[in-house]
Amino acid sequence: MNQYKKVVLAYSGGLDTSVILRWLQETYQCDVVTYTADLGQGAELDRARDKAQKMGVKEIFVDDIREEFVSDFVFPMFRCNTVYEGEYLLGTSIARPLISKRLVEVAEETSSDAVAHGATGKGNDQVRFELGINALGSNISVIAPWREWELTSREALLQFCEKHRISVDMKTEDNPSPYSMDSNLLHISYEGGVLEDPSSEPIESMWQWTKSIDSAPDSPTELEIEFKKGDPIAINGIPMKSHEILSELNHLGGKNGVGRIDIVENRYVGMKARGCYETPGGTILLKAHRAIESITLDREVMHLKDEIMPRYASLIYNGYWWSPERRALQALVDETQRPVNGTVKMKLLKGNVIVVGRESKTDSLYDNDMVTFEDDSGSYDQSDASGFIKLNALRLKLAAQRGRKF
C-alpha cells in the first residue's frame, strides 16, 4: 500500500493520532506532514510539535487560526441564533470545516497525495472532515485509519506504542481522563466513559471551564455587549478582536457557572449519544444577539430566521458547511443582520444569563410613543383593531356557523 508518497495528518499529539502517524508511515511507506490547528486549546500545541519531531516528521504545521475560527465561522453561525436540537451550540461541529479547509491548503502547499484524520467510524466528525475535504479538494484522497486498521481498543493502541517505542505522556495517556474530550474557543465537550450511561450524573470534577452554581459568586457580574451588523465588537465599551471577545465571554461566563449542558443528541450516522458541554461565551452571545435583534429586526424577518434556523443547524451538525444550500442560507441571514446594531446590558448570576436592557440608537424599531400604556398622543388608533380582528376571525366564525367541531 504505497500509492501515497506524502500524507497530511490532522495531528493533536495525543495517543490516537500518534499511533496513526506511525501506522501511516508503516502501512503506506509515505512521508507524513502533521497539521495541528490552534483553536484555543492551549498547551497541547507544544506537545504536538515535540512528538512529531521525535517521530521523524520533517514538515510540521502548527497553525494559529483562532481569529479566523471565530470571525469567519463562529460569528456567522451565531447570526442565525443556531442551536441543534434545542440545546447544543455546535462547538465541535463548527470547527471541522475550518480544519478541513486548512488540511486541503497544506496538502496543496506540500504536494501531498492525501489527508488523514483520526475520527472513528461511529461518529459525526468523519463525515464533517470528509465532506469538507471533498468540497474543497476534490482531487485529494482521504485516509481514515479507524475504518481500515485492526486496532479496536485503547489497550491495542498502547500495545502498538510499546512495540514501536512511541512515547506516551504519563499525564494524559497512562492516567487518562475517563472522557473523550474536545476543546476550542467556543466549547469543551465530554463523551464516553461513565457518560455512556445517560442516567449517570457527571461528577463535579469533570467540568473544567465553569464553576458550579454552588461555588459561583452570590452577586451578579454586569456586562454590556456592543453589536455591529449582528456581530459583537466590544465588551463594556472596549473594542476587541473576535477571538478576544469570545475568550472574555468564556471567562465571565465560566466564573458565574454559565454554559453547562448535559444532552442526548442524534448523531448523523444514526445512533443517539450522550454528551456534556461547556459553552459559557456562546451561551451569553446567543442570549445577547437575540436581545438586540428583538428591537432591530422586523417581525416577519425574525420569524423567518426562526423557521430556517433548525435546517441551518442541521447542515452544520451534519458537516455541510461548504454546501451550496448553507451558503445560500448564510446570504439570507447576513442580509437580515445589516440593521442589527446596538448594545445589550446583561447580568450573569449562578448559571443564569439575564438581559436587563437593549438599545439601538440608529436602527431600533421600538416606538415608545406607540406602545405606551399612557397617552399616546394619537400615535395609534385603537378602534382600528376592530376590523383587524373581524377579518382574522372570519374563517373561524364561518366554521362555527356550520357546526364544525375542532
Number of helices: 13
Q: Average pLDDT value?
A: 93
Largest beta-sheet details: 5 strands, parallel
CATH superfamily (homologous) name of the largest domain: Argininosuccinate synthetase, chain A, domain 2
Measured on Cα atoms, how large is the radius of gyration? Answer: 25 Å
Into which percentage range does the β-strand content fall? 15-25%
Shape: elongated
Helix percentage = 40-55%
Uncertain parts:
170-175
Could you spell the SSE succession in H and E letters? EHEHEHHEHEHHEEEEEHEEHHHEEHH
The total tally of domains equals: 2
**Strand adjacency order, main sheet:** 3-2-1-4-5
CATH top level of the largest domain is Alpha Beta
Tell me the CATH architecture of the largest domain: Alpha-Beta Complex
Structural class: alpha/beta
The beta-strand count equals 14
Distance between the termini: 68 Å
